[in-house]
Q: What sequence folds into this?
């Protein structure tokens, strides 16, 4: 009832905002118990897909693998945020690794390359918020995590040395007539070595096993190891013959739990985007649904803009190109606006940030984060502050309040391109009684790290990765399976 009233307030505010060109939104504080629907999601079904016009549309779902569903909301948030911090640390390490490998310092490159082959088992209990889609591979189906920071698609393969639980039957190379191992002396194997920083002989196994082997170590304790292979990939019935992927016989990492593996959508030669250049022109886009609403989003491959349901025109920000960038999508973040106030920070001069589908909370270099935090505190001065929670340190006690006026949050990219974050992506509700409601952004450890725009701030938005035009488009969209 009060929930309904708040929805009405939200609608009213949206109307006012539309009329006034406006700012912010109302966030309702009575979050229902959504754990039931979330658990229901885990009794999974294949996600839908279809081909329409010049595009292939895959249904996207939020994936939250929970081994202990009885956990409290705080415990869940804590596990989520610490695993997100591990992902951010892992990305920082990989960015640095690519930089070193790409540099002319051969000794440093050799050290970095040897590190890249060693899976690091931190023992962290990882579980993360991610988005999954279902594709066809060989004769079967595979539900995979969609990751814009990964260079290679991989699935768990028989015979499994070590595999996590997954919904679908394991991929079995022996039962797929179109399967072939990728030989060591192939250009794909060379590309893999470039992509992962592995040196030649290590990737090529022994003389009696001339297959090209791979190791993807995510540094947060999760990894996938196996051989590079080819098979028929099927996207909504559209076949991609000879698709190169990792056939992983040794895999570890709770973030992958329940899924068959990962779809690499990075900006590198072996990613799905590059391998489907002929079909889809190097363009894909997604709309990430809200976690709570049990709703679907979509991953669209191809550049047919007519299938989108965006409610605002698409604005494009240029990608920053860098030969040493690895699979990452870099943009030039030049400003942030909170409410109508532009935040002032010297940190914007560093420019380069990553936009990532697999990181949850946006992490900013300290100078930018502190400026955003200060502005937020001044605009939220009427609410009592609450203690920090995990990586979130700008928190408020909103117990007893019916609703809260959320200031708008805009990211500004080079060229004056403004992207407004959906109001659901501004605050993170740690506790069910609203006694800890935090700004959903975190500070990185140092100015030398790279800021990352996470998926919490990309919800209800069409985000278009146009690798051919070297630009990323944004538009508001209420996500659904289109
Ligand atoms: C790779 O090695 C095999 C077996 O030694 C050979 O037959 C084939 O021609 C080689 N392919 C390339 C591209 O060098
Ligand atoms: C939050 O505020 C409520 C009501 O003002 C108070 O009773 C409660 O102790 C506060 N909780 C925390 C964690 O500060
Ligand atoms: C980012 O944009 C600013 C402002 O237009 C520009 O001065 C700077 O060179 C850009 N940085 C990069 C890495 O492109």
A:
């Amino acid at each position: 009832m009060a929930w309904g009233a708040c929805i009405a307030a939200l609608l009213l505010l949206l109307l006012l905002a539309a009329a006034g060109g406006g700012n912010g939104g109302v966030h309702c504080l009575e979050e229902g118990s959504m754990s039931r629907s979330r658990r229901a999601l885990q009794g999974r079904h294949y996600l839908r897909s279809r081909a329409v016009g010049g595009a292939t549309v895959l249904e996207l779902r939020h994936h939250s693998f929970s081994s202990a569903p009885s956990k409290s909301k705080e415990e869940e948030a804590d596990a989520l945020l610490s695993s997100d911090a591990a992902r951010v640390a892992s990305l920082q390490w990989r960015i640095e690794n690519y930089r070193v490998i790409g540099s002319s310092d051969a000794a440093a490159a050799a050290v970095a390359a040897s590190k890249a082959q060693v899976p690091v088992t931190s023992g962290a209990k990882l579980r993360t918020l991610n988005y999954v889609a279902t594709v066809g591979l060989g004769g079967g189906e595979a539900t995979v995590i969609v990751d814009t920071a990964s260079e290679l698609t991989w699935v768990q393969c028989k015979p499994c040395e070590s595999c996590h639980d997954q919904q679908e039957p394991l991929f079995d190379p022996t039962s797929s007539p179109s399967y072939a191992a990728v030989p060591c002396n192939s250009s794909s194997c060379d590309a893999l070595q470039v992509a992962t920083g592995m040196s030649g002989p290590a990737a090529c196994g022994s003389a009696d096993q001339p297959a090209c082997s791979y190791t993807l170590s995510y540094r947060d304790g999760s990894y996938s190891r196996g051989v590079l292979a080819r098979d028929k990939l099927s996207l909504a019935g559209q076949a991609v013959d000879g698709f190169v992927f990792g056939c992983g016989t040794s895999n570890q990492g709770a973030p992958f739990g329940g899924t068959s593996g990962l779809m690499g959508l990075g900006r590198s030669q072996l990613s799905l985007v590059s391998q489907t250049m002929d079909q889809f022109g190097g363009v894909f886009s997604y709309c990430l649904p809200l976690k709570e609403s049990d709703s679907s989003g979509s991953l669209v491959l191809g550049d047919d803009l007519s299938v989108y349901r965006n409610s605002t025109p698409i604005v494009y920000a240029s990608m920053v190109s860098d030969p040493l960038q690895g699979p990452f999508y870099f943009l030039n973040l030049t400003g942030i606006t909170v409410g109508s106030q532009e935040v002032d920070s010297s940190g914007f001069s560093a420019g380069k940030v990553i936009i990532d589908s697999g990181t949850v909370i946006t992490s900013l270099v300290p100078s930018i984060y502190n400026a955003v935090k200060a502005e937020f505190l001044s605009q939220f001065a009427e609410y009592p502050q609450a203690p920090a929670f995990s990586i979130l340190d700008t928190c408020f006690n909103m117990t007893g309040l019916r609703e809260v006026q959320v200031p708008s949050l805009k990211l500004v990219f080079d060229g004056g391109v403004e992207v407004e974050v959906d109001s659901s992506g501004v605050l993170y509700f740690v506790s069910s009684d609203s006694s800890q409601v935090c700004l959903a952004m975190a500070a990185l450890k140092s100015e030398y790290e790279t800021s990352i725009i996470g998926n919490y701030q990309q919800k209800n938005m069409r985000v278009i990765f146009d690798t051919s035009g070297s630009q990323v488009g944004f538009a508001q969209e209420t996500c659904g399976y289109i």
